[in-house]
Amino acid sequence: MRLAAFLSALLLLVPGFCSGAEKAAFVARLAAGQPQTVVTYGTSLTAGGAWVAQLSAALEKNFPKLATVVNSAQGAMWSKWGVENLDERVIAKKPDALFIEFSINDAYLEYKTSVEDARRNLDAMIDRTLAAQPECEIILLVMNPPTGVNLERRPKIADYEQLYREVAKTRGLRLIDFSADWQAVLKRGEAQWLALVPDGIHPNAEGAQQVILPHLLKSLGLVP
Question: Would 117 be classed as within a structural domain?
Fold first, then answer.
């Protein structure tokens, strides 16, 4: 076994190494000194999401010059687009870790994507990525809920979010679910919600910093 791979496996076994959540595999590999390419793939919540740059900065701080973060998401797209563009946007990057989120737009009524279609598309993206990159760590994301007219256009968003939970459980994938974090913001009132999600669907940089990033870093095992 190569030394880096041995160290990566050893770090996962050392008691107390994961002081918060169990470290993501790509984080453990970074800790072992192995360069990693991380690809984020999804909708405008990722394409224009400040959390991607914030994650990249956190990885650079912890593992200087080892992590390359590629934002391959596209605004206004959904899982059908995700499948059609997977080769160019994801597989060509040879990711060591892949974050996927498309539920917010799979639920968009005008795209006419059933929950079953969304599940097939998600499975296809996972299967094809792993066929090309067997060691790639797939991480599924459940993002923030839409409100107002954005919710009216996505009346069954909860069903599309649930399929991500089910696929993660069935396939043994890491899931990072921000639902409870955002529900806590909503409970604090409309003013607080709009301060972080001004248009009712896209968190601003402060929303990402306050709500998304802390949960993300903890879920990846980067902080206690």
Answer: yes
**Whole-number Å distance between alpha carbons of 79 and 41:** 10
Residues 59 and 27: their CA atoms lie apart, in Å, by 9
CATH code: domain of residue 52: 3.40.50.1110
User: Shortest CA distance to 164 belongs to which of 27, 8, 43, 32?
Assistant: 43
DSSP H helical segments within 1-156, as ranges? Answer: 3-13, 25-31, 44-47, 50-62, 79-84, 86-89, 103-106, 115-132, 149-152
Longest pairwise C-alpha distance within the chain: 55
Amino acid at 33: G
**Residue span of the structural domain in which 42 resides:** 36-219
**Does residue 59 fall inside a structural domain?**
yes
Q: How many domains does the chain have?
A: 1
pTM above 0.85, yes or no: yes
CA distance 25 to 46: 21
Which residues have CB under 8 Å from 96's CB, separation 6+? 26, 29, 36, 37, 38, 133, 135, 136, 137
Q: In the structure, what pLDDT confidence band is assigned to residue 76 with cuts at 50, 70 and 90? A: very high
| Cβ contact 55:113 at 8 Å | no
Distance CA 207, CA 173 (A): 26
Contact call for residues 132 and 72 (beta carbons, < 8 A): no
User: Is position 28 within any domain?
Assistant: no
Q: 18 pLDDT exceeds 90?
A: no
77's tokens: 């797209």
Terminal-residue alpha carbon distance, the chain = 30
- How far, in Å, CA of 165 to CA of 169, rounded? 6
